[in-house]
Amino acid sequence: MKEKEFTKLLDKVFDRTKNTLLAKRNEYAHKEDVFKSFKNGTGFSLHTEPEQVAWSYLAKHLESIQSIIKKLPNERPSEELINEKFGDAINYLIIIEGLLKE
Fold first, then answer.
1. How far, in Å, CA of 25 to CA of 37, rounded?
2. Long-range contacts of 79-84 (CB under 8 A, 24+ apart)
C-alpha cells in the first residue's frame, strides 16, 4: 500500500469509528457520563472495574479478528466484516483509554 492510499485508509477508519462510537454512545451512555454502561456493567459481570468490563468486550472482538486472520488465505473477509470488527476494537481501546484517564 502506498503512502497516499494509507492516508486515505486512515481518514476512512477515523471517520467510520468516530461515527460508530458517537452513534453507539447515544444508545449506551448518558450526557452526564459517557461511560455509564461500563460502570453499570460491574454490577452484573465478573468484573469490579469498568475498564475490566470494556476489556471483556474488546477481547470478544480481538478473538473474532484472530479467527478472521487464521482463515487466511483460504477465506477472505468482506470489507463490511473488517470494518465492523476493527472499528469496534478501536472504539473499545478508545473507551478504555478514556476510562483510565477519567
1. 9
2. 83/16
58 and 92 Cβ atoms separated by less than 8 Å? yes
Inter-residue contact 25 to 34 (CB < 8 Å): yes
Give the tens place of pLDDT for each residue, 5-37: 999 999 999 999 999 988 888 787 878 899 988
Q: Which residues contact 35 (CB under 8 A, 6 or more apart)?
A: 29, 50, 95, 98, 99, 102
Q: Is 54 exposed, middle or buried (0-12, 13-18, 19+ CB in 10 A)?
A: buried
Q: CA–CA separation, 53 vs 17, rounded Å?
A: 20
pTM of whole model > 0.85?
yes
Q: Could you tell me the three cell numbers for 17?
A: 469509528
Q: Are 77 and 68 in contact (CB under 8 A)?
A: yes
